[in-house]
Amino acid sequence: KGPDPDLLAIIERMNTVKHKILVLSGKGGVGKSTFSAQLSFALAEMDYQVGLLDIDICGPSIPKMLGLEGQGIHQSNLGWQPVYVESNLGVMSIGFMLPNQDDAVIWRGPRKNGLIKQFLKDVDWGDIDYLVVDAPPGTKFLIDVRKEINFCKKVGVPVLGVVENMSGLRQTISTLKFVKPSESGDTDATEWALNYIKDSAPELLSVVACSEVFDSSKGGAEKMCHEMRVPFLGKVPMDPQLCKAAEEGRSCFTDEKCIASAPALKEIIKKL
Ligand code: ADP
Fold it and tell me: In terms of domain of life, where is this protein from (predicted)?
């Protein structure tokens, strides 16, 4: 069997991206997209060239969180052109392809994976420092963060760290890790995307956010990280102002009302 032509195309595309940061969550509604969006804003504000790729094709919320609702994608002979928030922050999302933002995309299996593959190989990011990937939530076997971490350990993938979001209320956590290709042949979209990204850029950073309701009386995510020997990156408190900024497509770092969340997020981002 010869080399997979799609993988070769993705490798070529990813060659112009220095760091890939993958954000994943076990469940929906834990702040994965919020984290991806604010991380992208932060990196762009630090003058990096940033791409944000939303492959959460079942509920793309990135266009809204970046203030890009209603925008569409254009093609050039170099590929699909991202939609730019600033000259150094480009965004690609399935949301740009849906006529109605409320349309749910109920694609499964090969069609879903085909679209993710196309995003990875056909978007013309140009030379960028960071590609932040907001990945699809919920996989069959990775819905629990401990399981995710164990899966990483099993396949020899270093976990870069864990973020506890909405700390103090229902605690959710994010783990940051490298992921190696699995040999199972499973077509789960998340795992599949991880494998493709890892294959095409083995030296690069992946971030995985996954979630679990934590009992803070038992030490929360920090204790779990200690027990599982993975880095704990910090807590982001529950902050209605962060929710508002996200709803309105704004960066929390330039919003003086986000006093509870912005400094915490900034500290976490510094550690990446
Ligand atoms: P996911 O991508 O995991 O499905 P979202 O990023 O869409 O989750 O977040 C779900 C909701 O929670 C959004 O309305 C978002 O604004 C809100 N949210 C996320 N993190 C926080 C936080 N730390 N404080 C307050 N609201 C938050």
Answer: Eukaryota
